[in-house]
Design a protein that fits this description.
The structure holds three protein chains of three kinds. Chain A contains eight helices and 28 strands. By secondary structure, chain A is of the alpha/beta class. Chain A has three domains: about 180 residues, FAD/NAD(P)-binding domain; about 130 residues, FAD/NAD(P)-binding domain, CATH 3.50.50; about 80 residues, no CATH class. In chain A, a hairpin with a 4-residue loop joins strand 6 and strand 7. The two termini of chain A are about 40 Å apart. The C terminus of chain A is likely disordered. About 15% of the residues of chain B have low confidence. Chain B folds into two domains: about 30 residues, no CATH class; about 60 residues, CPE0013-like (CPE0013-like fold), CATH 3.10.530.10. By secondary structure, chain B is α+β, with helices and mostly antiparallel strands. Chain B has two helices and nine strands; from the N terminus they run E-E-H-E-E-E-E-H-E-E-E. Chain B is elongated, with a radius of gyration of 18 Å. In chain C, strands 1, 2, 3, 9, 10, 11, 12, 19 and 20 form a nine-stranded mixed sheet that branches. In chain C, strands 5, 6, 7, 13, 14, 15, 16, 17 and 18 form a nine-stranded mixed sheet that branches. In chain C, helix 1 runs parallel beside helix 7, helix 3 packs across helix 5 and helix 4 packs across helix 10. Chain C is of the alpha/beta class. Chain C is globular and about 65 Å long. Classes of the chains: A alpha/beta, B alpha+beta, C alpha/beta. Chains A and B meet through helix 2, helix 3 and helix 5 of A and strand 4 and strand 5 of B. Strand 11 of chain A pairs antiparallel with strand 23 of chain C, so a sheet runs across the interface.
Chain lengths: ~450, ~110, ~525
Amino acid sequence: MVDQPVDVAVIGGGPAGLAAAIKAREAGAERVTIIERSESLGGLLDQCIHTGFGLFYFREDLTGPEYAHRFIERATDLGVKTQLETMVLDITSDRKITATGKDGMVALEARAIVLAMGCRERTRESVMIPGTRPAGILTAGTAQRYVNVDGFIPGKDIVILGSGDIGMIMARRLAMEGTNVKAVVEILPYVGGLIRNEVQCLYDFDIPVFLEHTVVEVHGRQRVEGVTIAKLDKSQELMPGTERLIGCDTLLLSVGLIPENEVSLAAGVKLNPLTGGPIVDDRRETSIPGIFAAGNVVHVHDLVDNVTWEGELAGVFAAEYAMAKAVPVKRRITMEVGENIRYVVPNHICPEREVTIYVRVKEPQEKVSIKVGDITTKSYRAVKPSEMIKLELSRNELGKIKEGVKTLIVNCQKRGREDDKGTGNYLHYVSDGLSGEGGR
Amino acid sequence: MCPMGCQGRVVVDEKAKVIKAGNYQCKKGREYAQIEFKAPLRVLTTTVITEGGHRAMLPIRTDKPIPKNKLKDCVKALAKVKVKPPIKVGEVLFRNIGGTEADILATMTINKS
Amino acid sequence: MGDLSRADGMRTKVAKPLETQVVIIGGGVAGTNVARELSKYKVDVILVERDADVAAGESKSNHGFVYSSIGILDAFSLVLKSAVSGGGAKLFDKETMKVKWSMEGYDLFESLAKELDLPYTNPGCLIIARNKEEVKGLEGLVDISKIMSEETGRECIPRWLGREEVLALEPNVTPDAVCGIYDDRWCKLIYPWDLSIALAESARENGARMIFNAEVLKVTCQNGGFTVETAQGPIKTQFIVNAAGRGVAAVAGMAGVCDFGLNFNRSQMVLMDKRLKGTANNIVFVPPKPGWFGAVVPRREGNLYVSCGAYYPTQRWEAENTATRKEWFFECITEGQRIFPSISERDVIASFVGVRVFNTRNPDDHIVEVTKNPRFINMAVRLPGNAFCIAAAKHVAEMLGNQGLQLSGKMDFNSQRKAIPRVNELPCEERDALDACDPRYGHIVCRCEGVTEGEIVEAIRRGATTVQGIQFRTRAGMGRCQRGFCGPRVVEILSRELDIPKTEVSFKGPGSEILLYRGKELL
């Protein structure tokens, strides 16, 4: 096992990793390598054959593979190296990477690392759905791989738990492949994902949606034979007598995404319990100098465009670090969650340059103002946890931060005047923040 | 409900003629609302079986939206298709699918296995 | 299912009526122990198993204790049981088969584990008390241990620990702990399925044959033997060893030698993420209450196994019902938190229900005996089964010998079985060496457990035909993502190695195929 020196090592070849690798090369880093555990680059974009990608980045409505293709081409043109079917086992805090691939163990010494490992899906067991343990229970993303990549259909009578984007996308996909999608079951009183998907996946295909319901039991010994669903009251308790049995041979789960940070933890990177991802600053540097992070591994995104922009940030600054050109941060402001805010990314910002912050609220609210400290206020007609809010803070606004102030609290409060027109950004409908989905 | 996410409103008279459309972020929204109400269009995305490729399925799309009510027939027709690599992303596989004037494009490059 | 007869003795369809000397019914820890024991002799053996793999029933869902029937763990189970089956009978009876053969089996375990390359740990058993009532409970357990010590001549009285000592031993235990009792001498810990799998491999290597998906449908007695009708066809045999677990009474009934019934109870266990490794250093219990059990078990690779809850009596018709229940989840977690407060439902990665079997003739003991048909032996095994079955197998071989089965030792019996390498635990140089022989050992398929393609292919070579079969032999799919990532890849590998279409790859045997249709088939 020979130690290979590398300037920027990018862990994960999905949209975040690709963007980071490209920008790292463009910023001048010589040896940039992507380490990817799958057989190809693109990450999950490969299996997302529907459109909705690149609406903002390219101002085009692309499919996942088309979006990935553009970045893969660019990365190849730039001479970004890749190690496919290679899995990182460990990273030390001094950026030594141990990985394993078909050619044996791989050791890399990286001057900078970008963590871009993405997310995994929440499982049936982790949401503790009672009942038997037959074949036929799949997470939506795994089902998507079987259908779109392997070319197999898990079953023909489908019930989907969770109305986040991936659940809705698979409802449509399976309906289009000739199955009978009998129900989409959602705990909340509203559909979790993008409204565009609600229309084009559920309404278009006449798929019944059961809001404020959940699956309370799985039946079937060898294979799923049915599920019992029941209604929940306002405090999310089951309402007895509302149970109904839906016969089906497949239960698809779209119940949340969890950032995959096992490798980050191995390196000693500090995680933010509110996001499940590393604590990062506006350069996307983690608590360990030289280790950066971007994409779903930091916080669950909905639009791949934002994942790309985040990857680009991390790539630029990782390259700077690798080339020993990193500008020391003179001032650090910590972002804190205030009223009705679930999380803010990044956790720290440097107020010397413009910054984009991403925010999710805890509870849905109407006619609100989101205040960042006292430096800016943006109004929104409605906000919900499944809508990630993007706030661009200009240098002017950041300049208003008073001397000696170390934190900025982000608050979401009801607006005083009822006739305020919304000025905030409607265009960033996101997938279900509660289930923390990626919009695909 | 446009692809960008705006929720518009359309008012129609008894003859189902659009007389007023409001609440859009852009001009395109108004046109979109009219189309969506009268004859909704959708981009079709699905897969076709590949033979001898490094992947079992080739993802495809229509190059422009087609009438929503033609989706089912097009999907059925495409189900019978088998394609052989090499196929490049963007390649036109079929023209004027189901008389919709839309072409079917490959959205991924598939090499021989 | 085609005729998948393979040179290594694994068959899933019988081409023509088979003949053998001994049919073992049931591939759990009892049956596989007997198979391995008999494979030491020049005896023809066929093991038939109803399900798709060994250890399909309780042999895979027990706690994994290998215990000796003395010491606090057994005192514990005696108190628990006395509450379940009603007091009256003398609590500790050293004359029972349970005590005698469990001790024998325990004594044999270490050398067997060496032969089979079976990993095990030896965490201590710590029973804590959090209040006066529980302290009384501890005292009761110590009293029973004293009786055990006296009667068996084996020192098994636990040590009393004060609060400070308890916290030193288990820094993360509940602050409510006031004292505890501790012993690490009479119990070892394994992954329960490992034992059956290792025994089966060793037995097969030494000539035993095994047939799966072969439920026994009928037993006809003839002169000098039987014909056993299975779902895979008929087998003529001289002797039958009935080790059919939950089905032991039904099978005995088929041969007219059933003079007992079965009672069942079940409880739910929850498996927590490896992230919690280090939370517990020992197996930590709280004193049992009537029909109630509370333990947190640190498994070898770091998962916490939480088994806290009531033992629910189960009707015979429900004995196959291993569905979990929401209330049992919460009961398990809440009680687990009362032992280790850092346990959280966020860390749950799996949950399942275990069913325990007791015979009605003598619920406090096992039945392992020659029946009124001298060539038919019943093995109605209850808990604790892991250590017991090691000794029971030897006794069964002896019984068969006494009934006329010629037991002449095989000169070429190979007692050594090597386990599939657990690549994730190997140092770099060894990983590199493996990879040099077979690059598939460098290709990770299950990322949560770090399992390589090489291990999965080896598991298939050794008999795994299902996704669960791979899971139990390699750990692929047992991690936090529960086959989300490796699922499609394992299906691909099974399809390729077994040369079957992906639509025939199953989760746990026929009827549990994972992919029901090919793409476009429904259009």
